Amino acid sequence: MLTTVLGVLGLISCATAQSSSVKVKWLDGTPKYLSGVTFGLPWPRGQHLANATTFTASGDAQLQSWATAYWPDGSLKWTGHALAASDAPAEEYIITASGPGISTRSRRQSNGVKVSDTDNDIVVNTGKITATFPKSGNTLVSSIETGNKVVGINGRLILRSQTGTPDDDEDGKPVALDHFTFESKVSNVTVSRDTIARTLVTVSGVHTIDGDGSHADWFPFTVRFYLYANSEAIRIVHTIIYDGDSTKDFISGIGIRFDVPLAGEEFYNRHIRIAGVDGGLLHEAVQGITGLRRDPGIDVRSGQYNGTLLPNASTWDQKVTSRLQWIPTWSDFRLTQLSPDGFNLKKRTKTGQSWVKIPGGTRSGGLAYLGGATVGGLALGLRDFWKKYPTSLDISNGATDTGSITLWLYSPQAGPMDLRPYHDGLGEDTYAKQLDALEITYEDYEAGYNTPYGIGRTNELFLYAFHSTPEADKLSLLTNYTNNPPVLFPEPEYVRDTKAIGGYWDVPSAVNSTAARTIESNMDFLIKFYESQVEERRWYGFWDHGDVIHTYDDDRHQWRYDIGGYAWDNSELSPDLFFWNFFLRTGRADAYRLAHDQVRHGGEVDSYHLGNFTGLGTRHGVQHWGDSAKQARIATPVYRKTFYYISGGDERTGDLVHEVLDVDKAFVLVDARRKVRDPSVVYTPDPKALYLNFGTDWAGLAQAYLIEWERRGPRWEEARDKLLESVKTYPRLKNGFVTGEALYNSLTGAWSPPPTDPSNSGNITVSHLSGVFGVLETIDQLIEHFGPDAQNATKPFYDAFLDYCYYYGASKAEQKARYGADFGSLSLKQGHSRYTAYVAYHRNNATLVPRVWTEFLGDGSKDGLAPTAPWKTERISGSDVLIPVDEAIWVSTNAAALYGVAGIESLALVGAPDVNRIAGNTTTGR
Ligand SMILES: *[C@@H]1O[C@H](CO)[C@@H](O)[C@H](O)[C@H]1NC(C)=O
Ligand SMILES: *[C@@H]1O[C@H](CO)[C@@H](O)[C@H](O)[C@H]1NC(C)=O
Ligand SMILES: *[C@@H]1O[C@H](CO)[C@@H](O)[C@H](O)[C@H]1NC(C)=O
Ligand SMILES: *[C@@H]1O[C@H](CO)[C@@H](O)[C@H](O)[C@H]1NC(C)=O
Ligand SMILES: *[C@@H]1O[C@H](CO)[C@@H](O)[C@H](O)[C@H]1NC(C)=O
Ligand SMILES: *[C@@H]1O[C@H](CO)[C@@H](O)[C@H](O)[C@H]1NC(C)=O
Ligand SMILES: *[C@@H]1O[C@H](CO)[C@@H](O)[C@H](O)[C@H]1NC(C)=O
């Protein structure tokens, strides 16, 4: 049955293009260095058959290609591509897809990466380095060789925790605490099959204390190592999940450590480099021979400073060489970034001796090198090091045969991480009290739900191997590289035309309309405003980086970081979609960064990966995991989909989508609307009859199913069948989408009437929230994916959706005429203008266009961002504020997100506003 609807898989109905070329360009200018890169490309339906297409890159660049998504007809929808490392990357690349039915003069690509996979380990040779990944034990990387030298060994993870925090003792007296140090324990190691340009080694496991059993194994990790042909670097994507008890398991350090063999290297030929500010570096040696009372000679001094091999000591001034034993050796160096504003540095000769301060600075580039002029060494860096504070870098044992570099993703110098709730419950022990509290702080509290159990964090690191100490300029370049890894992206017009990621956005119009230009410049204002707020308000930190705050407190000139539901935003009303869609249409690097950081935040910290809430996210609040509203609307992959595909299928993001595939299991354990449902409704969650909201619950699941289907993941047929069943059964609800909430059979995907209306006589539950978490975008993508061949199957569903689009903003009289009652008072009209634009476009109804702009710019903008808003910030300084800030009291993140999403979509769907036909509009713009 399915095949008749969807077309026989693998058969492409329309005439296929034989060869097509797509240009990709660097987001941020051509990099001076490239350790390899992966990117994604979309393709229009029916153009290239998955298994019969070959890809080549211009300039004969070594290219590896794979499918990341398919149209239902078996043609490619998205592909991933990897380019090998290069010292001279091209300004742009043309990727050519050929086939089916054409024989290409495709260069036979040799495997740029050599992989050996045995029972004990996986060995990867990039041509520049060889790395060995054991399949069991405590080390993730047992050795890294370059130029026949072993320059790194024992790559492992470290975790420290303690049973409490000294903060709980007012007098600062030592509290009796147990302290634990854990190491990684590897349980699973896999390697990807293709090796033309890159290979991926995935290592997972837990943290363990060997031997004494004083603490159970915990804190699962997945660390991915990306190795590119011809590269001296390894990109490391490090994911951890917190699975402790926040009252007992206080994390005091999360680290990744590599040892560096130094035996045989003279102390004065051992070098330490630590990244400082703006490309700056600390230049030190284990045994310094500069600044001494006697001069070993200019070549010796400048050689050590530069990190080159010093001339034989017999050639130096003997006044120095005869006294080398009196010059201390420095074993340990430590950079500590406990705030986004400053770092401290110090060093010591060895354990047991005092530290000596080294002048510090503001924001460290987060990279450290340890090695020798002849033995070589390693550099290890963390992307966004200072933004992820508290972080630190340790070089230790530099004066022994085996030194080490530790990158602390959570610094042991910071004091333990306290993940307990920030208040004691305030006596809110009934739903009635909790709802009343919501009235004042907007926090939706419930004991037991404010748990960090199952939240995660993903960090990105780079490891670089050297056969001798590199020049400082090189390390400076690599520091910048670590923080700004290059990104390749096709032209926005091309992406749009493929229809692979939404038909509701367009590039900024060339049409010369003042009104459209004003909307464009306002959206630009908002993007830049959030960039500035991240910096001015220091929205940084281990758990916080990538989030923004929900609402502003005008009186304190401060975002409401401490007020219940007004604090961390957790993707409320889709700022992610604003930032990603803005990026898609402009290709702008700044928008990419905002959106990228959100992906790494919302998908990880605001969502659960273990436990009862797996696949759900948490509503906005003071702590990212604190609010008791656990909802799919926050975890929905619609927020991460653009990144997933344009990154060539970022594997961690792919995992997150899989978690949401099972969110129906969480719906059984957690009744999302338990507190707000009509008390007369008796509801016991049942997998066959989950009482779900169409927009805030199902849309997230549907997006996960859609991606699983697109990428032909292990459950794609189940996902497709359930989507089809939903599409078939939903329109049978008398009022279609206006029903709002109904019973969903998670085993089949079928909808049936809600318990309030078992006979399907027609319920009306229209919430302002249903439509503002990506449901329109998900349905648009879904219908596009089903495609023209499935139109008979999807039409009733789509019609019901278009009715919803029409009636949300229609007059009460129209609503009543159609449904027998009106929808009551609804808000978020500006954000819903895109629904009106969507139905205007898809029903070809030009008479609706003035309504779109009345909602966006006229009456509807009154609870959004009106044209009459200032559209500028105001500088506040002096004693009014802690530090000078730019504020815009008229901006809330809800309003900004909706303005952006609706602005982009409405402009794309109905074109520039005609300002003479907007009801309630008092101004034509600025
Ligand atoms: C491509 O070929 C593989 C192996 O024969 C097959 O499993 C897969 O389904 C094919 N994909 C498509 C989209 O036809
Ligand atoms: C090992 O990891 C691979 C992917 O990296 C995953 O597919 C597989 O299920 C894992 N196996 C176990 C036993 O965890
Ligand atoms: C150290 O580097 C500087 C600047 O590149 C250079 O002028 C000098 O010759 C170098 N010294 C040695 C001994 O390599
Ligand atoms: C760092 O890299 C970015 C992105 O490639 C580039 O725009 C910037 O100029 C670089 N900064 C320095 C100091 O080289
Ligand atoms: C667009 O309009 C502006 C002002 O209305 C005018 O200065 C400009 O020349 C116009 N540009 C085009 C390409 O028509
Ligand atoms: C998970 O849900 C079950 C059933 O509701 C409950 O008994 C259990 O305590 C929950 N576990 C956690 C860790 O919350
Ligand atoms: C749903 O429909 C039933 C039957 O018409 C009615 O009694 C009930 O009040 C309706 N509830 C809502 C929320 O519309």
From TrEMBL:
Keyword Cell membrane: no
Limits of the PcRGLX/YetA-like C-terminal alpha/alpha toroid domain: 485-911
The keyword Signal is annotated on this UniProt entry: yes
Record's protein name: Tat pathway signal sequence domain protein
Signal peptide per UniProt: 1-17
Record-annotated PcRGLX/YetA-like central beta-sandwich domain positions: 113-478
InterPro entries in the cross-refs: PcRGLX/YetA-like (IPR045793), PcRGLX/YetA_2nd (IPR048330), PcRGLX/YetA_3rd (IPR048331), PcRGLX_1st (IPR048329)
Domain (PcRGLX/YetA-like N-terminal RIFT barrel): residue spans on this chain: 21-97
Keywords on record: Signal
Organism: Neocucurbitaria cava
Pfam families associated with the record: PcRGLX_1st, PcRGLX_2nd, PcRGLX_3rd
